[in-house]
Amino acid sequence: MCFSKSAQHHSKVKQRNSLLEIMENCFEMMVARCIKIGTVQTLTMLGLLPEVVTISQAEDIYGKRLITEWREKAWIKFYPANNKERGKYYVKRSELETASAMMDLHNKVPDNIIKQLMQLTV
Question: Which residues of 43-61 are buried (b: 16+ CB within 10 A; e: fewer)?
């Protein structure tokens, strides 16, 4: 009986350590994404990177499917362009970076891990 309790305890500790490692990796990724967003914002504020991105430029960078998905989720907004020669609409680089980060964070933490983490805290 003692052996089975010890084995159960060891299994729970191993599971908890595995989840903590996943959480640590996710936290590192979140910090890295935040640094990237901050860097883009700083470069934009300094005028070294344009805030306005045409739809075709955004699609070249992130792909047409993601731009469509992010627009449907209202993560990005299409703004009417004043310069019709370059396109009818534009998007803001800051919105694109934030949408990309949100997608990365959502894809990196599977739902089953989130559920397990929530059960550990109870």
Answer: ebeeeeeebebbbebbbee
- Parent domain of 31: 16-121
What are φ and ψ of residue 79, in 5° steps? Answer: -105, 140
Residues 65, 66, 72, 78, CA torsion sign: negative
Contact, 90 vs 78, CB < 8 A? yes
> Which pLDDT band, with edges at 50, 70 and 90, does 89 fall under?
very high
Cα separation of 95 and 84, whole Å?
22
Q: Where are the alpha helices (DSSP H) in the chain?
A: 2-45, 55-62, 64-72, 93-108, 111-121
Q: Domain for residue 4, yes or no?
A: no
pLDDT at residue number 112: 64
Residues 55, 57, 63, CA angle at the centre, nearest 5°? 85
The tens digit of pLDDT for each residue in 31-68 reads: 888 888 889 889 988 999 999 999 999 999 999 999 99
Residue 7 lies in a domain: no
- For the chain, how many structural domains are there in total? 1
